[in-house]
């Protein structure tokens, strides 16, 4: 019987290195796919490690440009944010990585796809649904849902011991066993000591940002971000007098500058798709700056009801029609730990919904103040009806 080929979503980290060895022990032929989504990784070293463990082949798929242009930029355009705080750094990367995995599976005629996602998390859902959408006949090997694997490995401590036993080099140590996932948009940290939500994350955990309270510059800096139909189109460094127009360069610059100011750190407990609550620590410097600038321009450019509808539906938006009018530039000020919009200008009169004369307190500008009486009367109908049906609102009596 011929040996079956497995495509492994490989990261070079603890879990997938141990899973590679485990698959080899199961007599599979393994092709590792290491997706370059902008993480600071020594891909040559990771490739050598996988080959040393026994992988038949290691493919490094450079998908950085696609990740930024096809996933991150549309997410900025739609204003996607999960539970009001998380900018979806890992969530956006997984479909992009899945496309690379399926391309390799098709090229080598592989029937199996393996991943190291935990059975308690969201990544298993992301990888597998993407795989079934792109190659429905693919079979999934998910070790963290395999009974024998789970009996052998309770968690990261067992994996660390297994790695040491088989001479697999990993960066995780028993003293600092948190899990890290990095890409050009963010770095996430979870597991280990972070599983106790009452434990403060140590400062040496952070890799993209400096401590905003102790190491960020005191003097703020300003830059201008241009948007075209809701998509970032340029970033102007006012201090350095340089303009960035390529998406990768734009995000890289914002990451460096945002990290220098300690922008984009969050420490949250969130709801996983599978029903569990989990604690995660995230660094998203460039994404945080883009989100703040885009949000400011949206409020400036969109009609009130369009904006409200978009906010309600943003996690389910199938098209970007509302973004046709979100074009312009936003001047952003960076200071220790935060970024804020300080000025904004729409492109080519697209932002005509903001009428400076109409809103001015110095001239009427075509506004008829007397009309406000009718507007108030119409909006008061429901209040009057409530009073008619249930009586007047009672003002609480102050106690002496």
UniProtKB/TrEMBL annotation:
The gene is Dsec\GM10539. It comes from the Eukaryota. Pfam families: Arginosuc_syn_C, Arginosuc_synth. CDD domains: ASS (cd01999). Pathway: Amino-acid biosynthesis; L-arginine biosynthesis; L-arginine from L-ornithine and carbamoyl phosphate: step 2/3; Nitrogen metabolism; urea cycle; (N(omega)-L-arginino)succinate from L-aspartate and L-citrulline: step 1/1. This is Argininosuccinate synthase. Its EC number is 6.3.4.5. It catalyses: L-citrulline + L-aspartate + ATP = 2-(N(omega)-L-arginino)succinate + AMP + diphosphate + H(+). GO terms for cellular component: cytoplasm. The lineage of its organism: Eukaryota, Metazoa, Ecdysozoa, Arthropoda, Hexapoda. It is an enzyme of class 6 (ligase). GO terms for biological process: argininosuccinate metabolic process; L-arginine biosynthetic process; urea cycle. One of its GO terms (molecular function) is argininosuccinate synthase activity. SUPFAM superfamilies: Adenine nucleotide alpha hydrolases-like (SSF52402), Argininosuccinate synthetase, C-terminal domain (SSF69864). The keyword Amino-acid biosynthesis applies. Residues 178-319, 323-384 form the Arginosuccinate synthase C-terminal domain. Residues 6-169 form the Arginosuccinate synthase-like N-terminal domain. Keywords: Amino-acid biosynthesis, Arginine biosynthesis, ATP-binding, Ligase, Nucleotide-binding, Urea cycle.
